[in-house]
Design brief:
8 helices, single chain, alpha+beta, 8-stranded antiparallel barrel, globular, 8 strands
Length: 254
C-alpha cells in the first residue's frame, strides 16, 4: 500500500475554481487506474476544530494507491494539470500506514494487507514500527459527527486544538473534511513517535475529550491512522513541513 497526501494553496481570487475542482475531479479519480481510495478535502486552520476554521485557500487530496508507480502516473493526469494552473504552492507527502483503526465512509482504506479482517484494525509488526520511532510520523483522524451532538462536540474541542498547536514536536497540523459541517478530521505531522505519544497521553484536554467520547456519542463513524513518512516534496508557506528527508530514503519509492 502506498498513500499520498497533496495540499495546494490557491490565491483567494481562485477559491471558487478550487471549490469547483472538488466536484469536477471526482469522476476522473473514479476512473484512475491503481487508485484504491481517495478523498478530495477542504481544509481548516485547526485552531478550534469548528466550521469557523475553514480555509478557502488550501485544498487537499488523500489517495491510497496499489503501487507507487500508479501514483507517479497520476502526476501526468488532467486533474493534476488543472491544479497546477490555479495553485501557487503545492506540498506532497508519501506515506506508509503503521496503524489504522475505524472506518471512513464504511471502508477501512488503510487496512488492506493480506490476512487482515477488513475491519480497520491493521497494526504493523513491532519491528517495522520500531524502525520509524525516531522518524517523522503523520496522523490522520476523521469522524462523521452525529447531527444532534455536533454543537456539543464543537464546544468541547477548542481546548484540544489549543493544546495540539502548543505541543512539542508538532511540525504541521490542519483540519480536513469532505464538507465544512458534519465531517471532522485532522492531518498532523510529528517530529517522531515520542512527540505524538506525549501529546496523546499527557495532554490534559486531549485525554479528557478521549475519556468523554464513548458516553458523549459525538461520532457516527470515526477513524484514526498513523503513517511513516517516506518522502516529502514541495512547501507549505514556503517550507517543507517534514524538513529534509534523509538521503537514503528520498526517491526510494518513486
Amino acid at each position: 500500500m502506498f498513500v499520498t497526501f497533496d495540499l495546494w494553496h490557491v490565491p483567494r481570487r481562485r477559491a471558487a475554481q478550487a471549490a469547483a475542482r472538488m466536484a469536477l475531479d471526482r469522476p476522473a479519480l473514479r476512473r484512475t487506474s491503481g487508485l484504491a481510495f481517495s478523498r478530495l478535502l477542504g481544509t481548516g486552520s485547526g485552531q478550534r476544530f469548528t466550521p469557523l476554521d475553514a480555509d478557502p485557500s488550501r485544498w487537499a487530496l488523500l489517495a491510497v494507491w496499489d503501487t507507487p508507480a500508479a501514483a507517479r502516473e497520476f502526476e501526468r493526469s488532467s486533474a493534476i494539470r488543472a491544479w497546477a494552473r490555479i495553485a501557487d504552492e503545492r506540498w506532497q507527502v508519501d506515506l506508509r500506514p503503521l496503524t489504522s483503526r475505524g472506518l471512513w465512509a464504511g471502508r477501512a482504506p488503510f487496512d488492506v494487507p493480506p490476512g487482515t479482517s477488513g475491519t480497520g484494525t491493521y497494526r504493523q509488526p513491532a519491528k517495522e514500527r520500531a524502525d520509524h520511532d525516531e522518524a517523522a510520523v503523520v496522523v490522520v483522524t476523521r469522524a462523521r459527527l452525529t447531527a444532534r451532538r455536533a454543537v456539543a462536540f464543537w464546544r468541547a474541542v477548542p481546548p484540544v486544538a489549543a493544546e495540539l498547536h502548543g505541543a512539542g514536536g508538532l511540525l504541521f497540523a490542519a483540519g480536513i473534511g469532505e464538507a465544512p459541517i458534519g465531517f471532522q478530521g485532522t492531518f498532523s505531522v510529528w517530529r517522531d513517535a515520542a512527540a505524538l505519544r506525549a501529546f496523546a497521553y499527557q495532554g490534559q484536554a486531549h485525554a479528557a475529550v478521549v475519556r468523554r467520547t464513548p458516553r458523549a456519542g459525538w461520532y457516527a463513524e470515526e477513524l484514526f491512522a498513523r503513517f511513516a513518512v517516506l518522502d516529502s516534496r514541495g512547501t507549505v508557506r514556503g517550507a517543507d513541513p517534514c524538513g529534509p528527508c534523509p538521503a537514503e530514503r528520498r526517491g526510494r519509492y518513486r
